Amino acid sequence: MELSIHNWMRAETIEKTVERIASLGYEKIEIQGTPEAYDTKYVGKLLRDHSISCWGSVTLMLEDRNLLAKDKAQRAKSVQYVKDVVTMVKELNGTMVSVVPATVGKIIPDGRPDEEWQWAVEGMQEIYAYAESLGILIGIEPINRFETYFINRGDQALALAKAVGPNCGVCLDTFHMNIEEDDMFDAIRRAKGRLVGFHVADNNRMAPGMGKLDWKKIIATLHEIGYDEVLSVEFCSPLDRTPANPYPNSIETNPEGLSPEQKKFLEDHGSSAVTEEFYTMLTKKSVETLRALL
After folding, report:
1. Strand bridging mode 96-99 / 2-6
2. What pLDDT does 244 receive?
3. Are 191 and 223 in contact (CB under 8 A)?
4. Are 294 and 219 in contact, with CB atoms under 8 Å apart?
5. Is the pLDDT score of 135 beyond 70?
6. Given CA atoms 237, 241, 245, 247 in this order, what sign does their dihedral have?
7. Cα–Cα–Cα angle for 8, 286, 274, nearest 5°?
8. Within 10 A of 121 (CB to CB), how many other CB atoms are there?
9. What is the C-alpha separation between 65 and 279, in angstroms, rounded?
10. Do the Cβ atoms of 142 and 156 come closer than 8 Å?
11. For residue 75, what are the contacts with CB-CB under 8 A and spacing of at least 6?
12. Other CB atoms closer than 10 Å to residue 135's CB: what's the count?
């Protein structure tokens, strides 16, 4: 397996991110789903110059992005957004896109379960057909109940993937599985043959190795089902604003380049802008924990 890392967890330039992960021994990046922010020719050269490749991307389902929206125009706009992410990954010679179907942070449905299921299938089928035409894999990602009411468990993602198409896959995440699955290892086993991506953070959403998850067993289970692709690090550190904070250097008090949308996304995930020193520590801890087990 190879190691990748997301880059949405800290607002910084892509140059700084790539330089850091290359120096720490990562092979790949799972670039954030903001295609409007990147010149793919420039980013592609930057990655090659640092011997890093693009593994894929993850959709950032913020604001009005929602494949389950009652409004047809909103659904169409959301489908186009995911297609744009797929295009970006194709232009960066990547492999997959992780798709969260509903708006992150939205916990009130727009319609009946049967309506929303149909909207999700229709939207995902359009995205899937486009991705298939470009040779990009789609993985439907379950996230926990506090971030969405739709697709929280692996079995739900598998049901949607099977309704969408034969090559539609799932992308599992250890942090979300620890909350939602009765047995995360059985959930991994049931995804055999459909698992196209795997996100890693510890149970407290800190770097792997900073919580209680059994990383040796997780990786052994992935080997058991024949998944030997990429582990994508996706910590999002909960920050302590009390005197009990064990990492007093962690909170960035004067963040630069943090858009209002990014700020809200980080805060919604129980975090905030983090210092470069703290972020580098988490990035390094992740690679040290995982590399020893691969």
Report:
1. unpaired
2. 86
3. no
4. yes
5. yes
6. positive
7. 45
8. 17
9. 28
10. yes
11. 66, 67, 68, 69, 119, 123
12. 8
Range scoring the smallest mean pLDDT among 7-16, 96-105, 226-235: 7-16
Provide the token pair at 200.
């890693």
Q: Where are the beta strands (DSSP E) in 201-255?
A: 230-233
**Which regions of the chain does DSSP assign to beta strands (E)?**
2-6, 28-32, 53-58, 96-99, 137-140, 169-173, 195-200, 230-233
For the entire predicted model, the pTM comes to 0.92
Q: How far apart are CA 94 and CA 219, in angstroms?
A: 23
Which two structure tokens, joined as six digits, stand for 73?
């125009």
Residues 115/73, Cβ–Cβ less than 8 Å? no
Pairwise CA distance, residues 248 & 218, whole Å:
31
pLDDT per residue over 274-284, tens digit each? 888 999 999 99
| Spatial contact of 208 and 192, defined as CB atoms under 8 Å apart | no
Beta bridge partners of 172: 198
End-to-end CA distance of the chain: 7
Cα separation, 99 vs 294, whole angstroms: 26
| Mean pLDDT, residues 37-58 taken together | 98
Residue 216 pLDDT level (bands cut at 50, 70, 90): very high
Instruction: Give the pLDDT band (50/70/90) at residue 238.
Output: confident
Q: How far apart are CA 253 and CA 275, in angstroms?
A: 8
Q: pLDDT exceeding 70 applies to what percent of the chain?
A: 93
Contact 204, 239 (CB under 8 A): no
* 270 has pLDDT over 60: no
Give the pLDDT of residue 265. 62
